[in-house]
Design a protein that fits this description.
This protein folds into two domains: about 230 residues, EreA/ChaN-like  fold, CATH 3.40.1660.10; about 110 residues, no CATH class. The protein is built from 21 helices and twelve strands.
Length: about 475
């Protein structure tokens, strides 16, 4: 079963080229249960006619979500247009109806803070989208338009609205916030911390990614830098009574926490030697989600929120065997905290052309990050693919509430199918070949399922570069 533990990198391993693709679940079980579930789908799905939902269609979806405290809006890939457009329409409608007052992004703390400041009238959109630390795959027309709309909404309505990032992959930026606070609160600690993390800061100044820096270090350096980050966390905890009234304390303490989370999330990427990802404990792959879930709950306050993230992060259920091994998702963590007040929305599709970066093997990540996005034709249209099964319903776009499934459909939903989930990178020759990584249950992994038969590439925000002097 694919638990999305590698969704950030979309790595596939374990099958030689030309080897027969394993079944994701017993074919006999699928043949027995598929017709029963098909009847339920046809009676309960809500079709929509185009990528832009009509008012009644949008109302039907928002009514289906109900009065959830947190709504996890997934996306099947980081590089398609349809799911991102669908999400922006839903977010706007939820905000208009006053059902949410917070947008939680699978985005680093600093990038989320810049979006929040822009929504409240500070900054310029191009700077926020292209140079504000937003992941490249979300530098799209759809996301930029949503951010601009939220700014107009706040200015026009005068209502409170927050945007936060809960991811933890930018320790250099987070440490900068810590250092700036310590400059006034404890100058000696600030100077020492800057010296301690000098190599990371220098790497960041060169525009290198976090994983590029970890790969340039010794494996033993993890304990060193994790210990330094832990020391900063403990410093803020010890000084809480003395510092909490100082401006910026809460944000600096949050930043100290996310900086340490980054080191722990990249522990096995420290070192120059190749990594055998098959030998890494599953608990490790759950760390980032566990951190993001904790960050979301800690920052939620009295708000109702939309969580914008990948399907694999928002899914609210994993098999017990995976949970016992330490796997988790943001959605599982939020469901544990909020119970039925959390609703997860996942996506499925049959064929498409997707923006992604080419990755050639499991240890090709640093080089892959530097490659441009390309358009990859991909499909989920073989027996055992969820997209192939849903295409037989002959409804090209629909959503359906899996929480209302009958017993036969729930039994079908427990059968793993190859799902077609894709992060920012793809290894085309091993697309949907390993059921342990690429297959998952449909229900109850997500509460609501949205289906598109066809996906098109994301609309990358291709703004011309700023002219240089003399040009």
């Amino acid at each position: 079963m694919r638990t999305m533990i590698l969704v950030a990198f979309s790595l596939w391993a374990g099958l030689a080229a030309g080897q027969t693709r394993p079944e994701p679940s017993p074919a006999a079980d699928r043949a027995r249960l598929e017709p029963l579930a098909q009847a339920w789908f046809k009676e309960n799905l809500v079709p929509f006619q185009s990528d832009v939902l009509s008012r009644p269609e949008l109302k039907a979806f928002v009514d289906m979500v109900g009065d959830a405290r947190v709504i996890g809006l997934g996306e099947p890939t980081h590089g398609d247009q349809q799911s991102h457009s669908f999400k922006t329409q839903v977010v706007r409608e939820l905000v208009r109806q006053g059902k949410v007052s917070m947008l939680v992004l699978e985005m680093n703390r600093a990038a989320g803070d810049r979006v929040n400041k822009y929504v409240h009238g500070e900054g310029e959109l191009t700077e926020v989208i292209l140079r504000g630390g937003i992941f490249q795959n979300w530098r799209t027309d759809e996301f930029a338009n949503l951010v601009a709309w939220l700014r107009a909404y706040v200015q026009q309505s005068g209502k409170e609205f927050r945007v936060i990032g809960v991811d933890c992959q930018d320790p250099a930026e987070d440490l900068g916030v810590v250092f700036n606070f310590l400059d006034a609160a404890d100058p000696a600690a600030a100077a020492k911390a800057r010296s301690d993390f000098a190599s990371l800061l220098e790497s960041d100044q060169k525009g290198e990614s976090l994983i590029a820096w970890t790969k340039s270090r010794a494996k033993s350096d993890f304990d060193h830098f994790d210990g330094l980050a832990k020391g900063l966390e403990e410093l803020f905890a010890r000084q809480e009574s003395a510092w909490k009234s100082r401006p910026g304390y809460s944000e600096a303490r949050y930043a100290a926490g996310t900086a340490r989370q980054a080191f722990q999330s990249y522990q096995f990427e420290f070192g120059t030697e190749p990594v055998d990802y098959t030998k890494i404990p599953m608990e490790y792959w759950g760390r980032r989600d566990r951190f993001m879930g904790a960050n979301l709950i800690a920052q939620l306050g009295n708000d109702n929120a939309v969580l914008w993230a990948h399907d694999g992060h928002v899914q609210s259920w994993l098999p017990e065997t995976y949970l016992q091994m330490g796997a988790t998702t943001v959605g599982v963590e939020v469901r544990n905290a909020l119970k039925e007040a959390y609703v997860s929305v996942g996506f499925a599709w049959t064929r498409g052309v997707i923006h992604a970066k080419l990755v050639e093997d499991a240890n090709d990540i640093v080089a892959a990050q530097r490659r441009p996005f390309e358009e990859f034709p991909l499909a989920c249209d073989r027996p055992g693919d969820l997209g192939e099964y849903l295409a037989r319903l002959e409804t090209p776009r629909f959503f359906v509430d899996g929480r209302k499934a009958n017993a036969d459909t729930k039994a079908w939903g427990q059968l793993p199918y190859y799902r077609g989930s894709l992060g920012w990178a793809v290894f085309p020759d091993r697309w949907l070949m390993n059921p342990d990584q690429d297959a998952m249950q449909t229900f109850p992994s997500h509460d609501i399922l949205v289906y598109f038969r066809d996906l098109s590439p994301s609309t990358l925000w291709r703004i011309p570069p700023r002219p240089t002097a003399g040009s």
